[in-house]
Amino acid sequence: MYIDQTDSTNSLIQRLLRGEEPEYAACLKADVPLIYTTYQTAGRGQTGNGWESERGKNLLLSYLLREPKVDISELFLLNVTAAVAAHRTIAEWLSPEQRPMLSIKWPNDIYIGNRKIAGILVENSLSGNKIQHSIAGIGINVNQEQWVGGAPNPVSIKMLTGVRADIDAIAKRFEQKLETTLSWEPVQRRNYYRVHLYRRDGYWPFVEREVSTAPTMNATAGAEGQFMARIKGVLPTGEIVLIDQQGNQRTYHFKQVRYVL
């Protein structure tokens, strides 16, 4: 279902689940309910980050997954699933020469080169040891060409291709990609995620950060305390496993370490 604007598509679905905003209640009857818009007044990203999007220029959507068949100890598989679907979708709008540069930046941003083209926020509702539902929110930069809010490295499909893209078509294609990705076995989703990880080969600079609720940003070159490491893998629980140049294994939750760009 398309709506002209909302505060946040994730927040709208949460209100619908509480029985609020009945004018949009029909979307909850779908097997994989989807709400998308081209303007949010209070878009949200991971760990308190905002999401800047010029009115009418980008795709902002949320899917409701009712009782997803995922063990509570492996919630990160839902982030993996959304990231894989977004990566597969965006790749279709790029040239063959650009596609190899498209990657999934742990935990679940989509990058092309060192620039961010999409972000994902998965929110889960738990009851004891059971997942009641999950909401996968995705923002894809489609036709925006200028950012005024200080985003450090954004890029859009139009900036990459020079052609204005059809947002409705991308929303439909994402729905199809999500449905097919959900049908894959968990090992297949994780393998796709691993193969397409950002900076998956070689040693790269990282820096530790204190755990807090403050927005997580990439560190810049010359940041204090940085170390060189390669990615060994990502655990089913979502932690990244690094091997530093001294051969030490380091495991981090996404709030505990930052990339250095």
Could you describe the 3D structure shown?
The protein has 2 domains: 9-195, BirA Bifunctional Protein, domain 2, CATH 3.30.930.10; 204-259, no CATH class. Helices cover 22% and strands 26% of the residues. The chain is built from 5 helices and 11 strands, in the order αββαββββαααβββββ. The strands form 2 sheets. The chain has a 6-stranded antiparallel β-sheet with strand order 1-2-6-5-4-3, with helices on both faces. Strands 10-9-8-7-11 form a 5-stranded antiparallel β-sheet, with no helix packed on it.
Distance between the termini: 37 Å
The strand order across the widest sheet is 1-2-6-5-4-3
- The shape is globular
Mean pLDDT: 90
User: What's the CATH C level of the largest domain?
Assistant: Alpha Beta
The CATH homologous superfamily name of the largest domain equals Bira Bifunctional Protein, Domain 2
What's the alpha carbon Rg, rounded to whole Å?
18 Å
Mind describing the biggest β-sheet? 6 strands, antiparallel
Q: What name does the CATH topology of the largest domain carry? A: BirA Bifunctional Protein, domain 2
Query: From the coordinates shown, what is the CATH architecture of the largest domain?
Result: 2-Layer Sandwich
Derived from helix and strand composition plus strand pairing, the structural class reads alpha+beta
Number of helices: 5
